[in-house]
């Protein structure tokens, strides 16, 4: 095709020891970024070397949720990502020119941006690279499959069956890309009533199980339901304040689920 030379992506090399997980969802608002940030913080707290790429170009919320205040810095000809809570982070929001709010980005630019994140930053030796993907079945998932064929998918859904259907469609993409879906995370599974302690099924039941079963059938490989995370006001507050709940209260039921899932990665 000519043009720029192919860049070397360390995570795509056969010798790479980094586990790369793309966190995907069918639609926005299901808690994909919140889950990703808490998983990254759990892994870092457990002593792993972790990086998080915020590829959710339109809804980039990772820096705020992790309390990242720094910007990428140039050291000789390398670009170093900023870090917070032991997690190296790069986000589209860090690259946009000051004063510009929305990024006018289309498919091919998105591909190049992801390539830039993967190839041009100095990540060092990583145990885990998590990638917060844009919701849906967009081009960027195909881009990732081309750039890092070994990347595995984690699907986030709510229990709501309508949400599960779109999540399932996002998962179906792997039949084209031959990526592995390592499991499904159900978020906002229930709310513990602050008065009586009984769980309330705010968004219904069964979405996570439904996606896991459907993708197991589709791929012929077991796709487990990795965990069910309750609604917790403090999980949202932790995202707003930049301290993930798994760090501020590892004993909370939502944290316990997230930490258990992180340990299974
Ligand atoms: P997505 O990345 O899927 O668009 P977000 O992670 O941005 O979703 O979450 C959407 C909103 O829901 C945010 O305000 C977030 O704080 C909140 N949220 C996500 N998961 C939970 C949860 N388990 N309990 C309470 N609030 C949550």
Protein model, in words:
The protein has a single domain (16-264), classed as P-loop containing nucleotide triphosphate hydrolases (Rossmann fold, 3-Layer(aba) Sandwich), CATH 3.40.50. It has ten helices and eleven strands. The protein has helices spanning 32-45, 62-66, 107-120, 139-147, 161-172, 174-177, 207-219, 233-241, 245-248, 253-264, and strands spanning 19-25, 50-54, 73-75, 78-80, 83-84, 87-91, 128-132, 152-157, 181-192, 199-200, 225-231. Strand 3 and strand 4 (78-80) form a beta hairpin. Helix 3 (107-120) runs parallel beside helix 4 (139-147) and helix 5 runs parallel beside helix 7. The structure holds adenosine-5'-diphosphate.
Short description:
The chain is of the alpha/beta class and 265 residues long. It has helices at 32-45, 62-66, 107-120, 139-147, 161-172, 174-177, 207-219, 233-241, 245-248, 253-264, and strands at residues 19-25, 50-54, 73-75, 78-80, 83-84, 87-91, 128-132, 152-157, 181-192, 199-200, 225-231.
Number of domains: 1
Task: Write down how many β-strands occur, each being a DSSP E stretch of 2 or more residues.
Answer: 11
- Report the CATH superfamily: P-loop containing nucleotide triphosphate hydrolases
- Please describe the biggest sheet, giving its number of strands, its sense, and whether it closes into a barrel: 9 strands, mixed
Q: What is the ordering of alpha helices and beta strands?
A: EHEHEEEEHEHEHHEEHEHHH
**Rg over CA atoms:** 18 Å
The low-pLDDT segments are none
CATH fold field value: Rossmann fold
User: Given the C-alpha coordinates, what overall shape results?
Assistant: globular
Euclidean distance between termini CA atoms: 37 Å
Number of helical segments with 4 or more residues: 10
Reading off the top of the CATH hierarchy, the class is best stated as: Alpha Beta
Strand content: 15-25%
Q: Briefly note the structural class of the backbone.
A: alpha/beta
Range of helix content: 25-40%
Query: Can you give the mean pLDDT?
Result: 90
CATH architecture: 3-Layer(aba) Sandwich
